[in-house]
Amino acid sequence: MDLKEQILAYLGQIEATTLATSDEVEQFRIAWLGRKGILKDTMAAFKEAPNEQKRELGQLVNQLKKAAELCISSGAQGAETIDQEDNASHDWTRPDGGAPLGAHHPLSVVRRDIIGILERMGFVVTEGPEIEDDWHVFSGLNFPAEHPARDMQDTFFVDRDPDMLLRTHTSSVQVREMERRDPPMRIVMPGRVFRNEAISARAHCMFHQIEGLYIDEGVSFADLKQTLLRFAQEFFGPDTKIRLRPSYFPFTEPSAEVDVYWGLKTEVDKRITKGTGWLEILGCGMVDPAVLEASGIDSRKYSGFAFGMGVERITMLKYQIGDLRAFFESDLRFLDQFQGEY
Ligand code: DAH
Q: Which residues pair with 161 in a beta bridge?
């Protein structure tokens, strides 16, 4: 084999070589570029070659050197990553950065917390249909025929049957349960409700309520007040104060709205409480005897209280969320903030 053939054979050999680890790279470097390496010998042989071949052979020797260097540098790059993954040098106890985890929706977290508190007080969860008839949403709850809540503006009606509609509140489930059960009953009724409202930061056509109902002999307004105080202190903290303001609902008498004391420490406090320090969290009252009778419960023997709250509203208070629409947009930048809320 003359020198030219020898160099071409070397080039073929290098081309067929891939160096995986840093050990392999180092061995290759010594064998090819080292003091007693192949390139040294080739150079020596080149010097001996006849002058008329020098031009061509010189170019080939150069090519050989470049090929060996390239093989080393690309091998070194690959070896770096492989070395990092090498079992011997890998720290298996190092945290892996974690797979991205999902999180519970803030409305689910708050709904679960609210229900949990009421369950510990003896309330039992029941649910009812979202598509309801007029009786369970309005008539059975003492809504007069001309009540504005029945208006087309507020209620989604089912086209095919004007008696059917999307429930505008979970109070409809109270009626179903009073018809179905005999007192005593102590139930909590979560669910979705629908109102024909323009979607904005403060209103939506679909939202969630949680309704409570307690019927027994001798249930009084004091029981209602104590239940709600206890609930607010469990949910918002042990020092929470509440106040009851007289209000009106067709199905309760007397009726009240309940505020929690939020404070006036920050500008945000002032803004969201409109300067009063108090925030409304729910509506409540003593079930109107006419409502008990309409569902077949003897109002001389039994009395009861009811309350209903908006889950979005309470969630917005708890997490200081300014825009109701965020709950329904499924934007991960919003939802990821609740990772910690198991
Ligand atoms: N259903 C009422 C609403 O949607 C809330 C409510 C008020 C429910 C008083 C009650 C209650 O059970 O007693 O605005």
A: 158
pTM, two decimal places: 0.72
CATH classification of 106-128+168-328, choosing from 3.30.930.10, 3.90.930.1, 3.30.230.10, 3.30.420.40?
3.30.930.10
Distances 149 to 139, 167, 194, 256, 303 between C-alpha atoms, Å: 11, 11, 12, 18, 26
Q: For ligand 1, atom 13, name the residue with the nearest CA.
A: 284
Residue type, 231: F
C-beta 284 within 6 A of ligand 1: yes
Residues 291-315 have pLDDT tens digits of 999 999 999 999 999 999 999 999 9
For residue 208, give every residue at least 6 positions away whose Cβ sits within 8 Å of its Cβ, in sequence order, or none: 107, 111, 190, 191, 192, 193, 310, 311, 312
Indicate the helix (H) or strand (E) that contains 40: helix 38-48
- Ligand 1 atom at shortest distance from the alpha carbon of 211: 12
